[in-house]
Amino acid sequence: MTYNPEFAMALLLVIPLLAAGLIYVSRKQPNVREAFTIIASLLLLANVVYLVTQVAGGARPELHLGTFAGKFEVKFQLEPLGATFAAIASSLWFLNSLFAIGYMRGNKEKHQARFYGFVAIAIAAAMGIAASANLITLFIFYEALTLSTIPLVTHKGDKKAIRGGTIYTVILMGTSLALLLPAIIGVQVIAGTTDFVVGGVFPEGTTLLTTSILLLLFAFGIGKAALMPVHPWLPNAMVAPTPVSALLHAVAVVKAGVFTMLKVVVFTFGPSVTAATPASTFLSWLAAFTIVMASVIALRQDNLKARLAYSTVSQLAYITLGAMLAAPMAIVGGALQIVMHAWGKITLFMCAGAIYTVAHRTEISKLDGLGRSMPWVFGAFLIGSVSIIGIPPMGGSWPKFFLMAGALDSGKSILLAALIASSVLNVIYLIPIAARGFLKPPQNPEEDAHIRVLAKQHRWVIIPPVLTAFGAFVLFFFAGPIVDFLTPILPGGVLSGGA
User: Fold this and answer.
1) Do 245 and 286 sit in the same domain of this protein?
2) What is the pTM of this model?
3) Is 326 found in the same domain as 261?
């Protein structure tokens, strides 16, 4: 069979799903099982790189998967925004897999084959979301992603895990079935299509009341975007092993949510309709509130993963804010935030997992002096934190610049206050973590000396976050090409002016 764009589109699903099958078959052979995981992640990355080059050249690769009810197509079509999401998910699957091998073995976690298998299925669902040509296809893979990650959240199988998994399931399935699905049906009834079209699909004469109701249904129905008050699933999912937390917060679930939010605004409503819809103003303010309030809650968390979870809630709201501002600069800023946040936040979660694996510490108050025993981990944490805060020369500085410019373009400059407040709060709740590790004396010098020895034995939980931290730095210098790649998603393909 000839390797061409259509075949490459099919491989987006085939590679991870085949990997899941091979992982199951080799479940009693850890080395073979994990080799299949790594090989599959590299093959998927190479395949996505090929598709990205096709999209960059102006192609829009397609694949028809089927038709049901006579007229509803399940179809793939890859455009720049979807290609960007696919690139993030595939590249970080590889790095997260390296980390997972060190973490799962280092902590002697049970059911490791099940873990790797469901991760592969979740990646397949993420690829389906990235390549969706319409809302129907996106909804199918959106639900598949939820279902495939439930066993990951409940991995440990204890009461705490079951409770966290129940909250996760009820909120994500409840919002999508009660709100997202009716919104999709509403689009089909009013526009006569659920296809993604640059500039939107609503016919002239669609009332502002109609678009407001639909926009609200989408905003709260896309529960994976974690906009308050539908965010509690995210901190409750922290009961999962750290590689799952990294997958949820940087690679698959939350990025699928904010990607869907941005895609709906750009390709279903269109920036001009979104900007004119009264609900977008309300949702802009709600996103700003989420940005600040989640940061305040993060400040109060002593558990490292809990602090990072609420930080994620805040950082995701940046993307919702960019979508609702609907100015070209804000939309591109939201898309950039998907990229930059992924690399910065997976670094922080991997560092948390490395600290747990080597030192068995989960509370920030117990990290004093640990940076001297684990300098690479705390150094990576500091770099990831600087990127999340948005300080140059880190990749995370660009989204804030574009979002601020977008707020000015859209006439909502007052919302700059939320972005500024968030940056200040980010400094307050992230920088002291690394500072504790490097600057405070160890609480138990003898134990920390032993930890220094253990760190050398657990290099596979240390190398991946160092690599992702380096990625967060390198991305600062590639923001221009990424922006150029994304610009065609805008009506007219022009990055200037208001919506």
Assistant:
1) no
2) 0.94
3) no
